[in-house]
Design brief:
Helix 3 (43-57) crosses helix 4 (59-85). The chain has helices spanning 3-12, 16-28, 43-57, 59-85. It has 86 residues and is mostly helical. It contains 4 helices and no strands.
């Protein structure tokens, strides 16, 4: 399974198969204004489909955001460690 589908599954709380379906459905969508399919209209499916849309349409923005989610806590830990040390 791809890292993208794994992230969608973990962040939305769906099983990996549904996350892959959301990703492939979003990638196959031609019209940006088209409504979400019924399967992804509510609940966790909607969250997975929304993430998939962002990943498909703005992949650079998504991966920079993921890097920021990792970098910010690391920065905070470094700052706390530096203030305790000095």
């Amino acid at each position: 399974m791809s890292l993208t589908a794994t992230l969608i599954a973990k962040l939305s709380g769906l099983d990996p198969d549904a996350a892959r379906r959301a990703l492939s459905t979003a990638a196959a969508q031609d019209d940006a204004a088209a409504p979400a399919p019924r399967e992804f209209a509510r609940g966790r499916g909607a969250r997975a489909y929304g993430l998939a849309i962002v990943i498909v349409r703005n992949p650079v923005r998504f991966w920079i955001s993921v890097a920021g989610l990792i970098a910010f806590p690391a920065y905070l830990i470094f700052r706390i460690g530096a203030s305790l040390h000095g």
